[in-house]
Design goal:
DUF2520; 2 domains; alpha/beta; eight-stranded mixed β-sheet; N-(1-d-carboxylethyl)-l-norvaline Dehydrogenase, domain 2; Rossmann fold; elongated; Putative short-subunit dehydrogenase-like oxidoreductase (DUF2520 family); P5C_Rdtase_cat_N; 6-PGluconate_DH-like_C_sf; 45% helix
């Protein structure tokens, strides 16, 4: 399949490389910034694999789009509508990669449009083992095509409508963005104490590993779920000089207490 990437950021880079490795031809990279850099990166990667003659063209203006089988709009959620308004490709397939943007934002760009949303935190410098993909389309034929493309680059593909995709988008913020902010504040706290967060990395990894085998509610540990008030007080004393951390500590402690009291009918 011939594919044009519209965008040159993290999502365009990671998905573009995967699509190329899967045997698709990246025809063009369209972006007002860094189009040439991504095109060069794709050409360099192609030379290492089975597409030594791959030569994606870098362009800045959507008016210069060539005919392709699929146009992948891989820009920020807030930019999808504006970018879509600059594309007119008749019957070609146009797909965006945004989690919080409805499918039909692309309806003026083409009669055939869809969504291929990577439910993963992507950075140009990294290559996750698995990128779950949520797909949708303007009709059953388009859904099948987008799903087929997705399956060439991921073993985890799920059809989702706008509402379902948004639920997962919210879930991604809750399990990734918010915890990472806690990691950041914990890192700063430990640095202030002359320590390193490196010692906590195995604990963080083990918590996630357990979720493959058990529901989250069954792997909760810590003083709040045990009802260890003495330890909680010691922690609170140490956090008195860190009001933001203390506020979160108390809030999470109270939430854990009340949740398990409701769930099991007893106070932990």
């Amino acid at each position: 399949m011939t594919i044009t990437l519209i965008g040159s950021g993290n999502v365009a880079t990671v998905l573009g490389k995967r699509l190329q490795r899967a045997g698709h031809t990246i025809l063009q990279v369209c972006s007002p910034r860094n189009a040439e850099a991504l095109g060069a990166a794709l050409r360099a990667e192609a030379r290492k694999g089975e597409a030594p003659n791959a030569a994606p063209e870098a362009i800045q203006d959507p008016k210069n789009l060539k005919k392709a089988d699929l146009y992948l709009v891989a820009v920020s959620d807030t930019a999808v509508k504006d970018v879509a308004g600059q594309i007119r490709v008749a019957d070609a397939l146009v797909v965006h990669t945004a989690g919080s943007v409805p499918l039909d934002v692309l309806k003026e760009a083409s009669k055939r449009y869809g969504v291929l949303y990577p439910l993963q935190s992507l950075r140009k410098e990294t290559d996750p083992d698995i990128i779950p993909l949520l797909v949708d389309g303007s009709d059953e034929d388009v859904r099948s095509i987008v799903e087929g493309v997705a399956k060439t680059i991921s073993p985890m593909v799920k059809r989702c409508n706008d509402a379902e995709r948004l639920f997962f988008h919210i879930g991604g913020v809750l399990v990734n963005n918010f915890p990472n902010y806690l990691y950041t504040q914990t890192d700063l706290f430990l640095q202030d104490k002359g320590q390193s967060i490196d010692m906590l990395l195995p604990l963080m990894a083990e918590t996630v590993r357990r979720l493959k085998d058990f529901p989250p509610a069954e792997v909760q540990t810590g003083p709040a779920v045990r009802g260890d008030e003495a330890t909680i007080r010691k922690h609170q004393e140490q956090l008195e000089g860190y009001p933001e951390l203390l506020e979160w500590y108390n809030a999470f402690t109270n939430k854990i207490r009340s949740f398990y009291a409701r769930k099991y009918g007893v106070h932990p």
